Amino acid sequence: MNQTKHTALIVDDEPDILELLDITLSRMDIKTVSAENINQAKALLKEQNFDLCLTDMRLPDGNGIELIKYIQENVPSLPVAMITAHGNMEYAIEALKSGAFDFVSKPVDLNILRNLVSATLKLSSSKTEEQVDVQDEQHGLLGISEAIKETRSKIQKLARSQAPVYIHGESGVGKELVARLIHKQGPRADNAFVPVNCGAIPSELMESEFFGHKKGSFTGATTDKEGLFQSADGGTLFLDEVADLPLAMQVKLLRAIQEKAVRPIGGHQEITVNVRILSATHKNLNELTKTGEFRQDLYYRINVIELEVPSLREHAEDIPLLANYLLQKIATEWQTETPKLGDDTLQALNEYSFPGNVRELENILERAMTLHENQVITRADLQLPELTINEDMSHSDQNNHGLSLDPTLNEKEKEVIQKALEQTRYNKTAAAKLLGISFRALRYRLKKLGIE
Hints:
Layout: E1 6-11, H1 15-27, E2 30-35, H2 38-47, E3 52-56, E4 58-59, E5 62-63, H3 64-74, E6 80-84, H4 89-98, E7 102-105, H5 110-125, H6 146-159, E8 165-168, H7 175-184, E9 193-197, H8 206-211, H9 228-231, E10 236-240, H10 247-259, E11 261-262, E12 271-272, E13 276-281, H11 285-290, H12 296-302, E14 305-308, H13 319-334, E15 340-341, H14 343-351, H15 357-371, E16 376-377, H16 379-382, H17 395-402, H18 407-423, H19 428-435, H20 439-448
Parallel strand pairs: 1-2, 1-3, 3-6, 6-7, 8-13, 8-14, 9-10, 10-13, 15-16
Antiparallel strand pairs: 4-5, 11-12
Helix pairs in contact: 3-4, 6-7, 13-15, 15-18, 18-19, 19-20
């Protein structure tokens, strides 16, 4: 006889909802145990183990959020989802902030409910009694500092939820990397992670990119096109530089997130989508809501949980570890031997402020890899901005300092730029990116150093 694998606790005082949930979950081979109020639920939680809990928002002896908080404190490994009244996003968001795994609105859409339960059970079957801090070498969130350990710990915790996470931090700290790790460590790991740079999509194509379109819906729509939401169905949609979304698109995005459904351009029916939203920007979204450049309702919807990624300055003790890891990575890509860092080189890196964070460290090391000799990277090979022409200098500064630089340094710089140009087949834009400088700065240096 086939044994039921999982047991769910359903907390609701409405007989029709209880019956609907019981029938739906039974068909998924899940046994249900019901409680009519918070006190009954607490008693059952003390008596037996459950794999998931579904609780209504309004209960005869209190509020479902009270039960969510109780479960968080007493049975933290039990995923709990909230059933809310239709359109009551305020309570849904409060439930997620309190530690709910997800929410479902009344009238209950059975598709959404099944997706939610499946994701919850995946989480339940993979739960461990204690979290172990693991450095992910393959994906690079490396570090022994407290700041990085804390970030890894938060990622593990956030991976267990379906709540939208707003990741913020300076440019180059690795916000997309953090988003990928949240996805990879959660129940959606087997499905797609779809990153989208909101600032890179032309505004007239934005709706089609996000929601898709039907053939013939506008000039040039020669076939049906799947949007980003559908591509990410069952997985995670990462909205990078979300602050760059135009206001008109912000309204449509908010609706898609709240309704968990999208309508392609030219389509007559909404398509249900099961997507977790992660977003990031280096801008201050809170300030942008005050100036009206970003909708406050969308801000509250995507910023259910906030995760700040520390700047490299805040965990400078990780620089040697990161530098060696990045050198190995670059050497593997270039199919060369991994050079060593000289003692004065490490000291120079430790003294530098890294306004561009880990991305800048990688650019500096890529540049040094083209310059070094005898398998050792020296301080001069780093070409740190203090040692080179600063692109932001005024013309008078350039006149004063540009020509008085050590001639050997000019020759070194010429050599590294030449190598970068050769490597990118003389594509100046790509060469500037490889060198970690702006196109304007590269153009100035080519002229200054007399490189044709």
